[in-house]
């Protein structure tokens, strides 16, 4: 069975604000083979990723991505790693490849699941274990705002994460008030996680000033103290604190995630399947993490299509955490429906449906569709009108 | 003085072949401020990089690159690192950023040199030391072809490199014949360098089978035995062989190059200024390498504009090697002139001219100019006709 078509749909909210919310636009990929249809979502700049699909050949290590997909034999589940290696080799000098491949890989897994009549996770293991969902949100501008947000985390969540905002940017006393407010709001019995959003760059001493604070408030993990590639700094901090470090959302290859485990000393490796190279690369990291006694966690901040994809690679891990977007944008709802329903214990599981179990509805997403046309020497390389929903 | 304009010129040979030669197309960047003009060159997929310049805002960590450049105050030489950090922070979720920033950074350094009336290297140190040029070429399809190529390396070159081709893909005996031919052709007194082009992926044992061969023929370095991120594999091999390992051309951040030094055990770190984030990032690596007793080497396979940019970051290192493209394509000559002239000892130095000292001539490059138009919801985001040479 040959891959007959690869389409990409650039969706965007009517107004996009210069704020951290990464769910304001999205590139949705659709692959087709033998009458089956698979859907995936990239965590990527949509227009740049479209260009990567169709950019003219530069040389043998810089092919347009689409040329490695359409017309190829649909790989079986055991052939996806080899399929990946070929795409990456043919486009290794095109940096945007990993982001583009992520959405395509997810769509291919959805398709493979449908063709084989099975959920994606079933190719990785017999069991689909629930994970403890955590509610992910930003620190408020003031400690009292953080307290209110923490209080309003729905009771079914057994864990909550606060991040970014003013934390790490002001005095130590201010950070203490923020942490105290978050802990008081979520209460003593739920897990409190902290995400400092790379704020300390490569500065270990500034980060280390917060060690006592995070330990005092029994923080479950300390996410992204440093820039994504600051492995030596991760390692130094990990040796000074009892709080386990977490990171990895910036990784766009499985190797980069492995480096955080091998050299950064993280206790949690957080992988965005929509960026690291899809389910195939995320699964490689999940396997490696398990082998190294590091907990694999998804990174997801957009739709239920992305959430389903991100839960598949470690569905067979018997326990762990899962990031669940708390408030879905209208665009995210259009793609993947209403926020995920947790089980009564606050757990979240990959769907039992075939493939990924989340299929965008053309009529629902079409209001967000962006028109893009790319012309080169008078020839149309891309016209969104050719990508029919 | 404000940065008034950033233009990008997509240049391409009339025919681009599906071969390894990365000089068949190029994206040249031009920045302007206060009547001065600076030029730079990316080692990047041109169309994808243009899209990264103008892609609509996705969120606060995914701005189009051009929005971080035009209208900004022209940084002084000491402000370039801060300028960099800001561009990368504003576009950290746009993977193609590092490749785009590389060309812009090089053009900015050229501009800064012209504004301050000094060559770029003079901002890094008082001296501009020559490096031993090596001629870079591919293994022939047969040992006798390799022998002929090695024989025809111009006599002024004190070192020659052979790479890719059949090496590592066939039997050990075949690799031995290739190495013997290369060594016989270059003679016993010139340095022979070998580039295995990532052929062993993550497979240490297959690479290790070649250790005795490379030692037997006194190979000066063993370049890219593994995939760019295979740090543990680099480290394992480095402990088994006396031949120093080399790598780094795939790095698109200074951190990634540091990892090859810290964890990969390389003896030579090879950086492409047109990919790692320009001269600013390459200079960070050059400083770090020196501190760690690792030799910094440029990676350059295109024009003299790229070669000049790649020599600046380590001009103050008292010795070392430099990669010099042996045969320039017509496009490379149009951009930066005829192949670089070596000094009588086979050395190569950065020019003494202001800035980078290599300025493309509009009439020479215009025959290679590609027309690109990118439209979004009926609005023209990019039209190459607006970028006037």
Please, could you describe this protein's structure?
- The structure is a homodimer of 389-residue chains.
- By secondary structure, chain A is of the alpha/beta class.
- Chain A has helices at 46-54, 80-90, 97-116, 143-151, 172-186, 204-208, 211-216, 231-240, 254-262, 273-276, 278-291, 304-311, 330-336, 362-365; strands spanning 5-12, 25-33, 36-42, 131-138, 159-163, 191-195, 219-223, 245-247, 268-271, 295-298, 321-325, 347-348, 372-376, 379-383.
- Helix content of chain A is 34%, strand content 19%.
- In chain A, the strands form three sheets. In chain A, strands 4, 5, 6, 7, 8, 9, 10, 11 and 12 form a nine-stranded mixed beta sheet that branches. A three-stranded antiparallel beta sheet of chain A has the order 1-2-3. A two-stranded antiparallel ribbon of chain A has the order 13-14.
- In chain A, strand 4 (131-138), helix 4 (143-151) and strand 5 form a beta-alpha-beta unit.
- The radius of gyration of chain A is 21 Å and the shape is globular.
- Chains A and B meet through helix 1, helix 9 and strand 13 of A and helix 1, helix 9 and strand 13 of B.
């Amino acid at each position: 069975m040959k891959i007959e078509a690869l389409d990409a749909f650039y969706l965007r909210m009517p107004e996009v604000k210069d704020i951290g919310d990464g769910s304001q636009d999205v590139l949705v990929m659709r692959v087709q083979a033998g009458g089956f249809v698979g859907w995936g979502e990239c965590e990527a700049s949509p227009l740049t990723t479209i260009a990567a699909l169709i950019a003219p050949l530069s040389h043998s290590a810089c092919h347009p991505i689409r040329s490695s997909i359409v017309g190829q034999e649909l790989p079986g589940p055991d052939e996806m790693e080899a399929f990946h290696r070929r795409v990456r080799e043919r486009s290794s000098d095109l940096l945007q490849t990993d982001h583009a491949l992520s959405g395509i890989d997810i769509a291919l897994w959805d398709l493979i699941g449908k063709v084989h009549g099975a959920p994606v996770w079933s190719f990785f293991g017999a069991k689909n274990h629930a994970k403890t969902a955590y509610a992910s949100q930003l620190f408020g501008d003031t400690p009292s705002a953080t307290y209110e947000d923490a209080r309003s985390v729905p009771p079914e969540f057994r864990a909550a994460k606060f991040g970014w905002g003013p934390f790490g940017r002001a005095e130590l006393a201010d950070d203490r008030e923020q942490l105290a407010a978050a802990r008081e709001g979520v209460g003593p019995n739920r897990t409190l996680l902290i995400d400092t959003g790379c704020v300390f760059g490569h500065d270990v001493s500034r980060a280390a000033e917060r060690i006592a604070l995070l330990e005092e408030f029994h923080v479950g993990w300390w996410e992204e103290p440093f820039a994504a590639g600051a492995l030596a700094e991760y390692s130094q901090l990990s040796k000074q604190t009892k709080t386990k470090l977490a990171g990895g959302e910036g990784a766009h290859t499985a190797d980069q995630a492995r480096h955080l485990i091998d050299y950064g000393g993280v206790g949690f490796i957080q992988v965005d399947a929509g960026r690291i190279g899809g389910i195939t690369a995320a699964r490689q990291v999940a396997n490696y993490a398990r082998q190294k006694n590091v907990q694999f966690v998804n990174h997801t901040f957009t739709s239920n299509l992305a959430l389903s994809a991100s839960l598949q690679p470690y569905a067979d891990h018997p326990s762990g955490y899962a990031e669940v977007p708390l408030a879905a944008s209208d665009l995210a709802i259009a793609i993947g429906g209403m926020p995920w329903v947790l089980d009564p214990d606050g757990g979240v599981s990959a769907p039992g449906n075939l493939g990924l179990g989340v299929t965008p509805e053309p009529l629902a997403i079409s209001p967000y569709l962006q028109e893009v046309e790319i012309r080169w020497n008078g020839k149309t390389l891309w016209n969104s009108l050719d990508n029919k929903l």
